Amino acid sequence: MKTKSLQKRNNMEHSEFIVGLDIGTTKIVAIAGRLNQYGKVEVISMGRAESFGVKRGVVANIEKTIASIQQAVNQACEIADIDMHQAYVGIAGQHIKSLQHRGVLVRDDIESEISIEDIQKIKSDMYKLILPPGDRIIHVLPQEFIVDDEQGIKDPVGMAGIRLEANFHMITGQTTAARNIQKCVNRASLEVADLILEPLASAEAVLSKDELEAGVALVDIGGGTTDIAIFQDGIIRHTAVIPFGGDIVTEDIKEGCMIMGNQAEQLKKEFGSALAHLAQANEIVAIPRLRGREPKEISVRSLAQIIQARMEEILEQVRWEIRASGFENKLIAGIVLTGGGSQLKHIVQLAEYTTGLDARVGLPNEHLAKSDIEGINNPMYATAIGLIIKGALAEAEENSDDEYEVDEQKIAHFQQEEKENEVLVAQHVEPEEETQQTQKKRKVWFQKFFSPNEFKKWFEDDDYIEFDND
After folding, report:
1. Which of 24, 191, 414, 434 lies 20 to 30 angstroms, CA to CA, from 304?
2. Residue 292 gets which letter from DSSP?
3. Which of 114, 116, 94 is nearest to 106 (CA)?
4. What is the CA radius of gyration of the chain?
């Protein structure tokens, strides 16, 4: 999957800008960018707004979500003086599920090669599966193909075979959740080009080709959910959503320290740590309280204990999902943490201790061109940047399909010419001979028309004279 994406990305020309819209629980981000000739994302502008209508990745208030989307889009448009008409939108939430399914296609002609149309046909059949009421298919991702019992084939195009089988990783979600997102985007004067699962978009922005081949688990710690995507041999193997994120940590700090929500969020960002024993025991932070009350003093170590307890719970569920996928011992590249929650101090050490795998923080700067926008390489913007990459790849694939149809027409034209030549050969009529016969007929007709008698008659008679061309 990623290998093909990188090849397409390298061959891609300088394109028009594409909009990635990340509708999250804590923030809504609209980023406009394009891929340059080197396959890097050039960010043109960015707009950000607080998200007040989304809970755990799902729209809970239509009007507030629309207002936040409009604020982010307007901000991005004003910075670069551009107009946004459509966007690639991320989707996440606890309603997201994944399943494995196998498709089979029996071909009639053994002489012809397996084509892209065959793969598209077997892929389109997956959308006909019967799902639980209220669910819809978001992505159908091919994993590997089997051609006449030959397994482990990644790209069967061009091969000969009768029976074509494919293993698919399918991602589903609630129809109402998807429709609510689309409704909000449309009412914000934008068209939804496509809905893309957010961890897949983040993977495009922060994972390298080597990590995808070696085996890696992407853990996107957002505000409302923690999204997991596991890759191995360049193929997606497992996806999952944990219904806890950075907001639940902030809520714990709010209740444990008895402070306001905005104070708890600021305290987490500036003084928070995921490992309590690394925090200073004698360090105290004074928090201003309501009018007429003394400031509240909070120990940094006590703060870290609250954070560690909740983050351990989230990372334990991450470890359980990795084990359930069956790829725990195949993740050579370990874990890559991204999203806003990955900025927490000592989160990498806690992830390694909890899961037993190597970990690092994934930044989107690997696929970013130099930009004047400050802080664009922050992991909290990985999803929006990944949406731009996914959108550019999707448009490049559509263009290549159009070129493929043109090539098919050319091939059909050449085949028709070959058939006509074969008919001429069968009739023992050479094209040169046919040309000579035609020239001979024209010569006879010319001599007859311009003979002295006919030429004289033409001048004497006003009527139109018809000549027999035989």
Report:
1. 24
2. T
3. 114
4. 32
